[in-house]
């Protein structure tokens, strides 16, 4: 099974209407480029201009305006859409940083709430967001290929990707808002490639663009080769995700099967 998949990048801001236009525009561009699935960035629905802002007022439910409009767009385009939003949780809890995978029929196929919050490099995401517990792996199937989802800072935790791969994922969708900076941009690409190599899996990493974030959305194949990239400007990059290529790489590099360490099932670590 071979099918073209896309990563899309733009910068969302405080204007939800504008963000929705960027998101649905990206779906259109992706489908016109032949993609069967498109990964949009983390926080596609809303990005706070001030990192100290209380996000509660902007959060939405999964049947709220953003996901509903994106479902309509996915269904009209006939492709799978993965995107991030700030999700309302029952008060007084802070919102969740959530990903949805919407099928080509417009129905939600999987939901993932960010487990590792970005309390690093001077940020304190946990001041505004509730970290999710570790639950069932967030996987979904598209045309016979199993996909898993991770969010941004989760990329730095190899066990989070491995959890999805152990659940059968052969492609990882990674919406992000990766903060810019020369060493940070190196981390982004090196970590995305490392997750692809060590899991012999595709990685589709889609990030917000500048000035705050670094863009540079990429598609990495199971050998760790960057097969498509979107550069710095808003846009879309497309590459073929191929089960034949996957099988060839896994025959050549059977590292998943060569593991020696006995790994405990993932559990929620105390916070
Ligand atoms: O604050 C913003 O405007 C946008 N950023 C985000 O929404 C999120 C949470 S603060 N960013 C990350 O997780 C970046 C991770 C990262 O950059 C790394 O791991 O190095």
TrEMBL record:
<dbReference type="GO" id="GO:0016787">
    <property type="term" value="F:hydrolase activity"/>
</dbReference>
<protein>
    <submittedName>
        <fullName>Predicted amidohydrolase</fullName>
    </submittedName>
</protein>
<feature type="domain" description="CN hydrolase">
    <location>
        <begin position="3"/>
        <end position="243"/>
    </location>
</feature>
<dbReference type="InterPro" id="IPR003010">
    <property type="entry name" value="C-N_Hydrolase"/>
</dbReference>
<dbReference type="Pfam" id="PF00795">
    <property type="entry name" value="CN_hydrolase"/>
</dbReference>
<dbReference type="InterPro" id="IPR001110">
    <property type="entry name" value="UPF0012_CS"/>
</dbReference>
<dbReference type="InterPro" id="IPR036526">
    <property type="entry name" value="C-N_Hydrolase_sf"/>
</dbReference>
<comment type="similarity">
    <text>Belongs to the carbon-nitrogen hydrolase superfamily. NIT1/NIT2 family.</text>
</comment>
<keyword id="KW-0378">Hydrolase</keyword>
